[in-house]
Design goal:
Radius of gyration: 15 Å
CATH architecture: 3-Layer(aba) Sandwich
Shape: globular
Distance between the termini: 36 Å
Number of helices: 5
CATH class: Alpha Beta
Number of domains: 1
CATH topology: Rossmann fold
Largest sheet: 5 strands, parallel
Structural class: alpha/beta
Strand order of the largest sheet: 2-1-3-4-5
Number of strands: 7
CATH superfamily: Response regulator
Length: 159
């Protein structure tokens, strides 16, 4: 799915609905973004490690690891906390938005979203000249209902 050679901004879309994932993928690919799809929080954590997206859209209501928990795990990692996380939800209440902020989300979009809404969120949060070049590996460990994250940098050679 990811084409590292293209230099396109990588966007991760996490949603348990295939229809929502595919709609977002279509909108974002048409706009030139490199799109990675995940169907739940656990799938997303593995893909974050593999693809290092520059922006993440996450549904709130998902099985296993919901969007609030997924967002909190991403934001707890010192090397990922600057990655914009945008919550997607059909709920538009003040409580839902506040809970998203408490989890660390950078923005909250309601479903059904529009192509323009997705693109505006990306351009608001991601500067095209600020694509990270650091080579790192993200590790997420989950036991029962508790998850943690850590990050390692590859050893650097001395000159």
């Amino acid at each position: 799915m990811s084409d590292a050679a293209s230099g396109a901004i990588k966007v991760l879309v996490i949603d348990d609905s295939n229809t929502i994932r595919r709609s977002a993928e279509l909108f974002l690919r048409q706009a030139g973004y490199d799109v990675i799809l995940a169907e739940d929080g656990f799938d997303a954590l593995a893909k974050i490690s593999d693809y290092r997206p520059q922006v993440i859209f996450v549904d709130i209501m998902m099985p296993r690891l919901d969007g609030y928990q997924t967002c909190a795990l991403i934001k707890q990692n010192p090397n990922l906390k600057a990655t914009p996380v945008i919550m997607l939800s059909s709920k538009d209440g003040v409580f839902d938005r506040a809970r998203g902020r408490l989890a660390g989300s950078d923005q909250y979009l309601t479903k059904p979203f529009t192509k323009e809404g997705l693109l505006e969120a990306i351009t608001h949060h991601v500067k095209t000249d600020a694509v990270p070049t650091t080579n790192y590996k993200v590790h997420f460990a989950c036991r029962s209902k508790t998850c943690s994250s850590s990050m390692t940098h590859p050893p650097t050679g001395s000159t």
